[in-house]
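Bench notes, afternoon.
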Amino acid sequence: QVQLEESGGGEVQAGGSLRLSCTFSGNIFSINAMGWYRQAPGKQRELVARITSGGSTNYADSVKGRFSISRDDAENTAYLQMNSLKPEDTAEYYCAADPTDTYFLARGRGTQVIVSS
C-alpha cells in the first residue's frame, strides 16, 4: 500500500502563490507517476498536473504556465508550485500516486486552497 499526505494549502489573494507538498510512504517502489487533482464544490475532479518517474510532466490547460509539478524521490516528496492564482483555482487539492483522468493507485486526504478576489 501507498500512503500520501498533503500540506501547504491555505488562503491567498488572487495573483498570489502557494506551494503544496505531498509526502508518500509505504510501497513506494510500485509508484511510477505522481500527480495532483483538484475538486471544487459541485464540479468534477480535475487532474491538474502529473509527473512521471523520468520527469515528464503534463498539465491541464487551465493551469498551464502557472503551475509547476516536481518531485524529490530522495525525500519521497512531490510538490505543486502554484503561481498567479485565480479565484477559480479554489478547490480541495489531492496528491495521488499513478493518476490518470479516471484512476489513481492511492490518494491523500486533500488540502484546501482558497483564492480570494
